[in-house]
Amino acid sequence: MDLDRVLSVTTDVVELKRLRNQVHQQRYRQKKKRLVGQLERQVVDLRATVDHLHLRWRRLQEEKRALSAPALTSDGSARLVHTYYTLFEHGRGTGAAGLDQIAFLRSVMAPDLDFMDDKVDGLAKLVQQWDVYSWVFPALQLTALHVEAPIITDDQEIVHAHVTLQLQLSPTAIETIYPALPPKEAALVVGRDLLVPISMHFYINAATRQVCALTTHADIAVAAFKLLGDLRASTTVLERSPLRHNAELNVMQL
Q1: To bridge 240 with a disulfide, which of 1, 180, 216, 224 should be the other Cys (CB 3.0-4.6 Å)?
Q2: For the segment 192-228, what is each residue's pLDDT rounded down to a tens digit?
Q3: Residue 73: pLDDT above 70?
Q4: Is the pLDDT of residue 246 over 80?
Q5: What average pLDDT does the chain have?
């Protein structure tokens, strides 16, 4: 019996130790769980704080750029576009008028102006195209139909203008732009005007206030159709026409 009591006591001691270990482990796990939960909440709070500070920093940077950048105004861009159309309303001028045109372009166009082909001198290309148009056509008129409200970004202002280029057709002009037009049909349009709708975008740099890029898109299909009144004929003449969709008149000036 004494042995049984000893064994029973020993078993109770072992069981007690096991229970104590279980209690300690349970308490440890609960404490660890609480600590992990606290750390996770702290991480979430820190991330929210970092996001808030980052957003605030971005807003401060935007405010700084807005305060330091030159002011872009729609009035300024409107004057620039209006002056451009006014000076070139009838193409390239001669004498003092021609010098005024060149002086204006040099003052408002960037030295590295992107126009029609980024591999060439954009400003020289612009002047050359006005020279070609004025050489090919006896008379021309540039009419601004609508200038949209400028789009202002951090570094530039974009002005979209819709214009019509009215080109008077002489026998030489017709032969130049529509070499595939038969003589009989060509004779019928001598003296008439070719009306070319053109969409233009002026990209004005915020820092320099100069036009860094000028894009043009001419609806030459509509122009040919309105002149000839026949879809097949207009499609045929456009196949060999040097008048491009970007309004470039690709002919050699003699």
Answers
A1: 180
A2: 999 999 999 999 998 899 999 999 999 999 999 999 9
A3: no
A4: yes
A5: 84
* Domain of 208, in residue numbers: 74-239
193 and 211 together in one domain: yes
Those residues with Cβ within 8 angstroms of residue 224's Cβ, 6 or more apart along the chain or in another chain: 178, 194, 234, 235, 237, 238, 241
- Furthest-apart CA pair in the chain: how many Å? 138
Q: Has residue 191 got a pLDDT over 50?
A: yes
Domain boundary among 68, 84, 118: 68
Query: 251 lies in a domain?
Result: no
Looking at the fold, whether 145 and 215 belong to one and the same domain comes out as yes
Give, rounded to a whole angstrom, the gap between the first and last alpha carbons of the chain.
133
- Minimal CA–CA distance to 72: which of 209, 219, 218, 228? 209
Same domain, 82 and 202: yes
For the entire predicted model, the pTM comes to: 0.68
For the chain, what is the domain count?
2
Query: Last residue of some domain: 45, 68, 91?
Result: 68
Per-residue pLDDT band for 38 (boundaries 50, 70, 90) equals: confident
DSSP assignments along 94-151, one per residue: -THHHHHHHHHHHHHEEEEEEES-TTS-HHHHHHHHHHHHHHHSS-EEEEEEEEPPPE
- 123: CB partners within 8 A, 6+ apart: 105, 106, 109, 111, 113, 115
pLDDT for 32 equals 72
State how far the Cα of 146 lies from the Cα of 245, in Å rounded to an integer.
Answer: 20
